[in-house]
Each structure stands twice: as structure tokens, then as C-alpha cells.
Specification:
Structural class: alpha/beta
Number of helices: 7
Largest sheet: 6 strands, parallel
Distance between the termini: 50 Å
CATH architecture: 3-Layer(aba) Sandwich
Strand content: 5-15%
Radius of gyration: 17 Å
CATH class: Alpha Beta
Number of strands: 6
Strand order of the largest sheet: 3-2-1-4-5-6
Helix content: 40-55%
Shape: globular
């Protein structure tokens, strides 16, 4: 199961995710897409429901639309094998760190600083930001290597990469604040 998580803003590439799912289905790759998050507008929600109901996706997408309370997150992330962040533009994404915190590898597009948060082959993989086909190819390649996916998941279940651990982040913030106060 592939997770698309967070506020469903256009720049996050939900359309790319859905089109990649459709491509995977046409290739005979058995995947289920789980979309969890709040649409920005009522029209966006109607469009999303209509797209998910089309023949190429009707059996491939589960929609969990609306605000996701933190108490729901362990079950949502835990049910999925992989988090997909096919952003069109971004400088960073908290979804990546949330995925790591719940022991799930990621597939991100190569935009902005997203790739900086992925240890290729260890915490996830980076897809070209060229559209649904590149995303589908990357997902298919990763899913076809079940031992690599299992190793990434096992590593992340032991804890996020050190640079994202709370004590490391807190120490970096404290050092920054201290340096600013000493000026």
C-alpha cells in the first residue's frame, strides 16, 4: 500500500500520484493507494472523488479525506508500505520525517530540497520530477526488490536517521540560538 499524506494542495502532486497508480495498474503491478488528508476546497474534493471513481482507479484508491488527528497517524502509516511525496515544487516536507518516525521509507520527487532528506536506497528513493511515468517506474523498481524495501523499513523502524532524531534537531537549534545570542 502506497500512502499519499497531508493537506491536498496542488503543488504536492496528488494528480501525479493518481496517474502513476493508474500506470502501475495497467502494468499489472498490484498496489493500493491510500490518500489521507484534507482537500483545500470543496471543488478539489469533488474532483478527487470523481478521479478516484474512474475505471482505471476505482479498485486502487482508498480516500480518507479530512483532517487527520495525530491519534490516527500510527494506524495510517503502519498500514502502508511506502510513503510517496510526488511534489511538483517544494523546499522540504514534514511528511518525510513523519514517515521516518513511523518506520516507513519514502519515494520523493527530485524537486527543491526533498532529495536532501532521503538517503538513497536506505531510507527511500528519489524519482525524477518529470511526471507520472517516472514516478511509476521508480515505485515499480522499489516494489520489485522486496528485500531492499524490507531492509529500508527495518532500518527506519529502529529509528529515523540521526539528523532527524529529536536530540540532534534540538541540539542544532540550541547551537543556532546560542550563536545568535553571543553576537
Amino acid at each position: 500500500m502506497l500512502l499519499f499524506f497531508g493537506f491536498l494542495k496542488p503543488y504536492k502532486g496528488l494528480d501525479v500520484f493518481l496517474d502513476a497508480l493508474s500506470l502501475l495498474g495497467s502494468r499489472g503491478v498490484e498496489v493500493l493507494g491510500y490518500v489521507a488528508g484534507a482537500p483545500v476546497t470543496a471543488q478539489q474534493e469533488r474532483n478527487l472523488r470523481a478521479r478516484a471513481a474512474q475505471a482505471d482507479l476505482v479498485d486502487m484508491v482508498v480516500l480518507r479525506l479530512g483532517f487527520v488527528d495525530k491519534s490516527e497517524m500510527p494506524a495510517i502509516f503502519g498500514a502502508c508500505d511506502l510513503t510517496v511525496a510526488p511534489y511538483k515544487i517544494a523546499s522540504q516536507s514534514g511528511v518525510i520525517q513523519m514517515s521516518y518516525a513511523y518506520g516507513r521509507p519514502v519515494v520523493v520527487t527530485d524537486v527543491g530540497g526533498l532529495g536532501d532528506d532521503v538517503d538513497e536506497g536506505e531510507t527511500g528513493t528519489i524519482a525524477e520530477a518529470s511526471g507520472p511515468e517516472a514516478l511509476a517506474d521508480t515505485i515499480e523498481r522499489l516494489l520489485s526488490d522486496s528485500s531492499q524495501l524490507a531492509a529500508m523499513t527495518e532500518k527506519l523502524e529502529q529509528g529515523p536517521p540521526e539528523r532527524f532524531a529529536w536530540d540532534h534537531v534540538a541540539a542544532a537549534h540550541l547551537a543556532y540560538i546560542t550563536s545568535r545570542l553571543e553576537r
